[in-house]
Write a structure and sequence with these properties.
It is a single chain. This protein is an alpha/beta fold. Helix content is about 30%, strand content about 20%. It has 2 domains: about 270 residues, Rossmann fold, CATH 3.40.50; about 80 residues, Alpha-Beta Plaits, CATH 3.30.70.20. The protein is built from 13 helices and 18 strands. The C terminus is likely disordered.
Length: about 375
């Protein structure tokens, strides 16, 4: 049996979503293979911040509703959970439609708070990672990820979705700690994935995002729902299908360095309505840096795109400055002032801006390389 199953799905019509989600789970033995009666099941959604559903920033509520119903039918006790980076959880969950799903089904929708230390294995790069206690107290975790591009990490799918298990602003601290090194940050994501051990990952790729993801890109009709017990394999295959280079994908580089077998892709891994040679056209993946990781800070900064302000779009909300863990951003009268010497290029300011008032400017070395290769 393949490791990843793809179901074609082009709308968020609830009966169609219910059917497609059930079909995906049935390929792996059905929901009862993963959930037993009485088990508390954390449905880890993608709730990066408060955005309307039509922006396609967050997991669609129809997906969450379908999985929650299946867990209830299996006798489990589902609850919807995540931890946005800066927004009020209640506000963000209401805008994403998760609160409404929870109320409709009579289940919890809760913020992931109360950090505790995550268990780690012998491959772990970081030994002191804090995640919400509710993650570790749950009997099972089902990750309900969103298919999007990502300014810092190239793509965000199954593995990256679990970074939300780190409570609130502790995320910004990790961005600061890993600095400019995307591969090091990818190592953190691998550690979280290995510690949380989701029993299943379901990916909402009906309408995802491309361009300046994970929040400021444009919707893209990928037309799929994917399911897997091995999110690394799914993420690597999707990178290829989206036209990305695995050699530019920090998650792949970190996994390869650790000798993960998932890095050796086998076409038999892929089953369902699309084959391993499927490819999407016109997907824009952010090239905010040369992904060839150079361990020299000065060179890194010349290779890495920097955030720039678009003042005519700014609404003066101040979220960008509030989320900046490096203290590299000052906000005054709808004007942003960047200290690029302090800036760690995590792009959290871009990610948290609700009106696309922060964009990227290519690093000097990248601009020179592009000029001489035209």
């Amino acid at each position: 049996m393949g490791k990843v199953f793809f179901a074609r799905q082009n709308t968020y019509d609830q009966p169609e979503i219910d059917s497609a989600v059930k079909r995906v789970f049935d390929r792996f033995g059905g929901i009862s293979h993963f959930v037993k009666a009485g088990e508390r099941v954390l449905l880890k959604v993608n709730l990066v911040s408060g955005h309307d559903v039509t922006r396609r920033v967050t997991t669609d509520p129809s997906i969450v509703r379908a999985v929650a119903r299946m867990v209830l039918d299996a006798g489990g006790v589902p609850f919807i959970a995540d931890s946005p980076g800066i927004d009020s959880f209640q506000r963000a969950a209401e805008k994403a439609g998760f609160v409404q799903v929870a109320q409709e089904l009579g289940i919890e929708c809760r913020e992931l708070t109360d950090p505790v230390e995550l268990p780690h294995d012998d491959k772990a790069q970081f030994h002191r990672i804090s995640v919400s206690k509710y993650v570790l107290e749950a009997d099972k975790v089902i990750s309900l990820a969103k298919l999007k591009t990502h300014g810092q990490m190239y793509l965000t799918m199954g593995v990256k979705n679990l970074f939300g298990c780190v409570p609130g602003r502790l995320k910004a601290g990790w961005h600061y700690n890993v600095g400019l090194n995307r591969e090091r940050f990818a190592g953190l994501l691998l550690d979280i994935y290995a510690g949380v051990k989701p029993c299943f990952t379901l990916l909402d790729g009906v309408i995802g995002m491309h361009g300046d993801g994970p929040t400021s890109g444009d919707p893209y009709d990928y037309g799929i729902i994917a399911g897997t017990q091995d999110a690394l394999t799914m993420d690597f295959w999707l990178c290829k299908m989206l036209g990305g280079r695995l050699e530019d994908y920090p998650l792949y580089l970190a996994a390869k360095k650790r000798g993960y077998s998932q890095c050796e892709l086998d076409p038999s891994d892929v089953e369902g309505d699309i084959s391993a040679d499927w490819s999407y056209s016109g997907v824009r993946i952010p090239k905010t840096r040369s992904m060839r990781l150079v361990p020299i800070p000065f060179v890194e900064r010349l290779m890495t795109s920097r955030p720039v302000h678009i003042p005519e779009r700014c609404i003066g909300c101040g979220r960008c400055a509030a989320v900046c863990a490096a203290g590299a951003l000052r906000h005054e009268n709808k004007r942003l002032y960047f200290d690029y010497g302090k800036c760690i290029r995590c792009y959290c300011c871009h990610e948290m801006c609700p009106v696309k008032a922060i964009e990227f400017k290519e690093g000097l070395l990248v601009r020179l390389a592009n000029f001489f290769t035209r």
